[in-house]
C-alpha cells in the first residue's frame, strides 16, 4: 500500500490519513477516473482524525472522519458543477473551498499552505479542461442545429409547386456572340486558423510562473483575470 500512495506524500501529508483515504477512494473510482492529489488537514494541537480533500480527473471529494475515526463520511462534486475554487492563507495553514452551481460551498481549514496551493493549481487545470470541453460541446450542438435547419429548408424547397412553363411563339434564334475569355482568378491564399487567444495567454503565463519570474499569488491573480475576461 505504501508504494501505491508514495506519490501523494510529497508535501508532508500524514501517511496514515492518506492510506485510510486511499483505500476508500479506490472503491469509489469510476471507469477512467484517476486520483490526482490528496491533501490532509493539519491542526496545530490535536490532529488525530484530520479532514482530507481528494481531486480526481472527474470530481472533487471532501472526507470527514466520524465515530472516532471508525468511519469516514464524504461529499463529492463533479467538475462541471464547480463554479469556482478558493484558497486563503492564514497565520497557521490555509483554507481551501469550492463553490457549486447550486450555491453550495464546502471547504477544509488548517491545510498546509503548500498543499492548499497544489489543490488550487490542480483544480484550476481541471476547471479549464471542463470549460474547453463545454465549449466544444456547445459548438457541436450549434453545428447539429444548423445542419437540421438547412435540411428542413431544402425539404421545403423540394415540395414547392412548379409553375407551368409557357412556350413563347417560334422565332429564329439570334446569333450568340462569342464571350471574351474569362480572366484567370488568382489563387486565394488560405488563412491559417487563428489560435485560441485565451490558451496562448495561459501558456505564456504558466511559462513565466514555472521559470520563477512571477510568484504563485501573481500567477493565480493573473489567471483569474484572464479567465474572467472570456
Automatic annotation (TrEMBL):
Residues 171-184 have a biased composition (Pro residues). Pfam families: bPH_3, SHOCT. It comes from the Bacteria. Residues 200-223 form the SHOCT domain. Residues 29-124 form the YokE-like PH domain. InterPro entries: SHOCT (IPR018649), YokE-like_PH (IPR039519). Residues 171-195 are annotated as: Disordered. This is PH domain-containing protein. It comes from Mucilaginibacter pankratovii.
Amino acid at each position: 500500500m505504501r508504494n501505491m500512495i508514495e506519490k501523494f506524500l510529497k508535501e508532508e501529508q500524514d501517511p496514515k490519513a492518506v492510506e485510510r483515504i486511499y483505500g476508500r477512494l479506490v472503491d469509489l473510482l469510476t471507469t477512467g477516473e484517476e486520483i490526482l492529489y490528496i491533501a490532509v488537514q493539519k491542526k496545530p494541537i490535536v490532529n488525530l482524525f484530520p479532514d482530507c480533500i481528494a481531486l480526481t480527473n472527474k470530481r472533487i471529494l471532501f472526507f470527514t472522519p466520524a465515530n472516532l475515526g471508525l468511519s469516514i463520511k464524504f461529499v463529492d462534486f463533479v467538475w462541471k458543477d464547480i463554479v469556482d475554487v478558493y484558497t486563503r492563507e492564514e497565520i497557521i495553514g490555509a483554507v481551501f473551498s469550492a463553490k457549486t452551481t447550486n450555491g453550495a460551498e464546502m471547504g477544509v481549514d488548517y491545510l498546509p499552505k503548500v498543499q492548499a496551493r497544489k489543490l488550487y493549481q490542480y483544480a484550476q487545470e481541471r476547471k479549464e479542461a471542463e470549460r474547453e470541453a463545454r465549449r466544444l460541446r456547445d459548438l457541436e450542438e450549434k453545428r447539429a442545429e444548423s445542419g437540421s435547419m438547412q435540411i428542413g429548408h431544402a425539404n421545403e424547397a423540394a415540395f414547392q409547386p412548379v409553375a407551368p412553363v409557357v412556350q413563347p411563339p417560334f422565332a429564329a434564334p439570334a446569333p450568340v456572340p462569342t464571350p471574351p475569355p474569362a480572366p484567370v482568378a488568382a489563387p486565394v491564399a488560405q488563412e491559417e486558423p487563428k489560435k485560441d487567444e485565451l490558451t496562448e495567454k495561459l501558456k505564456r503565463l504558466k511559462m513565466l510562473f514555472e521559470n520563477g519570474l512571477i510568484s504563485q499569488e501573481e500567477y493565480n491573480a493573473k489567471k483569474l483575470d484572464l479567465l474572467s475576461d472570456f
